[in-house]
Amino acid sequence: METSRDDFIIAVRSAFLKKGAAQRFSLLALIIISFILLSLDFFKFKPIDLFRSFTKDLIYRGSFIASLPFKSVNSSIIIIKDHFILYENYEKIKKELNLIKTEKRESKFLKTQNKELKNAIKDTLKQEKESIVAKVLLDKKSPFLKSVVINKGTKTNLKKGMAVLHRGNMIGRIVEVNYLSSRVLLLSDLNSKIPVKIEPSGDNAIVSGAGNNIGTLLFLPKKSMIEVENLVFTSGTDGIFNEGIPVGKIIKLEDNFFVEFFEDLNQLNYVNIIKYEEEKN
């Protein structure tokens, strides 16, 4: 048993020593080959130079070809990033432009509203009788029924029958009054009938609505001397409207006389209501 164990140990040691010798030989061989290759740089051998040149070209071109996919990927990534940045900038500029346009439209609208309100206040100051400025809330449009709803009512002492003006011209009268709102029957409504006087002839008549900005003349004297461009005012014979409120001017259509209202009754934003006091017995 002891002899067998010694033989096994001797065999393992021999194998280890053999392996160490092989490693030492390999290292020595590499050193010698490296020395030879380095020495070749000092000698000019055409075959070796050609081989070296070919090897370098092969390595360089191989490196270049190998780097192409990476360069393409990097270029594509940069292009895509630039595209997204450009798109984000475009969207940002687009939003800013839309915001500027919206603010500009709002500013223009507010300026227009402010101008109309100032004109309404000026008209109020010009009235001999007390008047109230009101805003049009709702425009009830239909082919022949024309009325608007305003934001003033009994809270501000409005009453049925009060005259409603726009820029100092007659546009209608109040026919319905609530606490905070009222309905105005416009001159263009078929149910509208107001007494007027035509100047300079002095003829009295009734202006009736026809569904548009032109009124029909009723009860005009047969021998009337009215002419085109004559002015039409309220006559005040109804005891409600003031005398002399401008209504429109005379026009002629198909040999008949009509009244063209001074105001476009489809473009009302602010109006003036003339207040009156009932006569006390």
Q: Which outline best applies? A: rod-shaped
Q: Strand percentage, roughly?
A: 25-35%
- Taken in chain order, the helices and strands follow as HHEEEEEEEEEEEE
The percentage helix is 40-55%
Distance between the termini: 155 Å
Q: Which fold name fills CATH's third level, the topology of the domain at 131-274?
A: Thrombin, subunit H
What's the CATH class label of the domain at 131-274? Mainly Beta
Q: What class would the helix/strand composition place it in?
A: alpha+beta
Largest sheet: 6 strands, antiparallel, barrel
The order of strands across the largest sheet is 1-2-5-4-3-12
For the secondary structure, the number of strands is 12
- What is the correct CATH architecture of the domain at 131-274? Beta Barrel
Model regions low in confidence, pLDDT < 50 over at least 5 residues: 1-5
Polypeptide structure, described:
By secondary structure, the protein is of the alpha+beta class. It has a domain at 131-274: Thrombin, subunit H (Beta Barrel). Helix content is 43%, strand content 27%. The protein contains two helices and twelve strands, in the order ααββββββββββββ. The strands form two sheets. A six-stranded antiparallel barrel has the order 1-2-5-4-3-12.
